[in-house]
Amino acid sequence: MLPLLMALLLSQPGPGAAGRVVRRAGIDTMPAPGAMVLLHRVGPVEQGAIDSVAADAAGRFAFQFVRDTGAAYLVSARWAGIEYFAPPLDMDDDESVLVTVADTAAAAPVVIAARHVVLSGQASDGTRTVVDLVILSNMGTLARVRPGDELPSWSMLLPPDALNVRVAESDFSPTAFDQHGDTLLLFAPIPPGEREIFLDYQLAPGIRSLPIPVDSAVVAFTLMSEESLEVDALRRRADTTVNERSFHRWTARGDAVGAFVVRFPTVWAPGWLAGSLAVTMAGSLLLVTWVATRRRAMVPAAGRHVDSLLDQLAQLDAAHVGGPAHPGDPAWAAYLRERNRLKSALAALLPR
After folding, report:
1. What is the 3-state secondary structure (H, E, C) of 52-114?
2. pLDDT of 36-51, one tens digit each?
3. Cα gap 41→67, rounded to integer Å
4. Contact by Cβ (8 Å): 20, 53
5. Three-point CA angle 115, 254, 349, nearest 5°
6. Rounded to an integer, what distance in angstroms lies between the CA atom of residue 129 and that of residue 121?
7. Does residue 131 contact residue 200 with C-beta atoms inside 8 Å?
8. Considering only CA atoms, which of 266, 261, 267 is closest in space to residue 209?
9. Is 331 exposed, middle or buried (0-12, 13-18, 19+ CB in 10 A)?
10. Which segment of 39-48, 92-101, 340-349 scores lowest on mean pLDDT?
């Protein structure tokens, strides 16, 4: 009966959402029968799941509903205890929805694909603010999960002098993290692909040096600072300007493990140079600049097409820093589609 209902729903025109749930299997995918699929509505007043259905033997599902033009709709599938989301539904596109899920393993390899540390100038009270962007990469086909109830799925050492550590807008909920001493612990599953962790913390007045521990291999490391610093084991790069603020820049490549030591100038900066890098300060443009810096370090200078794609990404994100004008904003949906297209084109050109 269920396959017949699915076939009828999939063949009916009109409002709704239909598609498949597939499971990663090596370099291929297979149907994920029985996956629980949920339809979510995100409106200006109410948000939450409004319908659910189990995927059939071929992984197919379908929903029929009347769309509210003032709301956005998402489809998710639960597999092995993890919720996987497809991109937001396009109100003007009847394209089939594809939700990709994964089996799990506690030993699934996860590396830090990139880490970008940004140091603000010294505030009038002598404190400094640090923004730390970590990009985790799970390039396998299995989602990494905790090896035990009390153990994290991933951890990272923090600078020993970091104060008021805060997890900002990231690809994981802030409640999925804990801090034990100078170690950041993540207790959420890590699905295949890249995930961002966005931290900020403060350094107390009088700190003369800052060791940045690297306890696992980092593919690409970038340090940016408004102050001129002495830095060990990092290569000095050309200065860069972000949002009319000038930053000195250092990078490292390869499987560097240990600690990068930063030494600060002994004279405090004047008060007018103060100002912490708040998480929301032109966040999208700053992150795009970091990512562009990281990507440029991975390709030869002759890769003009890569640079062109990076520039297009930066310009696109800069034009949409404010986010969607309202839930279901078609301009925002068009922006996401174009951004995904550019990222796919860029990924195809970069070395693996």
Report:
1. EEECCCCCEEEECCCCCCCCEEEEEEEECCEEEECCCCCCCCCCCEEEEECCEECCCCCEEEE
2. 999 998 888 778 899 9
3. 9
4. no
5. 80
6. 8
7. yes
8. 261
9. exposed
10. 340-349
Q: What 3-state DSSP class applies to 195?
A: strand
Residues with Cβ within 8 Å of residue 239, at least 6 apart in sequence = 246, 247, 248, 249
Q: Which own/partner contact pairs does 172-176 have at CB distance under 8 Å and 24+ positions apart? A: 172/197
Single-letter code of the amino acid located at 308: S
User: Which residues, in sequence order, are bridge partners of residue 300?
Assistant: none
> Contact, 263 vs 230, CB < 8 A?
yes
Which residues, 6 or more positions from 266, have their beta carbon under 8 angstroms from its beta carbon?
Answer: 208
Mean pLDDT value across the chain: 78
Give the pLDDT mean for 94-122: 89
**Whole-model pTM?**
0.69
DSSP letter (8 states) at residue 272: G
**Residue 73 identity (one-letter amino acid):** Y
CA proximity to 83, closest of 155, 183, 176, 8: 176
Closest-CA residue to 118 (of 101, 133, 139): 133
Which of 342-346's residues contact partners 24+ apart within 8 Å by CB, and which partners? 342/309, 342/312, 342/313, 342/316, 343/313, 345/309, 346/295, 346/306, 346/309, 346/310, 346/313
Higher pLDDT, 145 or 253: 145
Helix, strand, coil share (%) of the chain residues, nearest 5: 20, 40, 40
Per the structure block, which two tokens stand in for 208?
């003369």
Determine the distance from the C-alpha atom of residue 325 to the mean position of all C-alpha atoms in its chain, rounded to a whole number.
Answer: 22
Decide: 208 and 182 in contact? Cβ < 8 Å: no
Q: For position 245, what pLDDT does the model report?
A: 80
pLDDT over 80 at 213, yes or no: yes
Which residues on adjacent β-strands are paired with residue 236? 250
Alpha helices in the chain (DSSP H): 2-11, 283-296, 304-318, 330-349
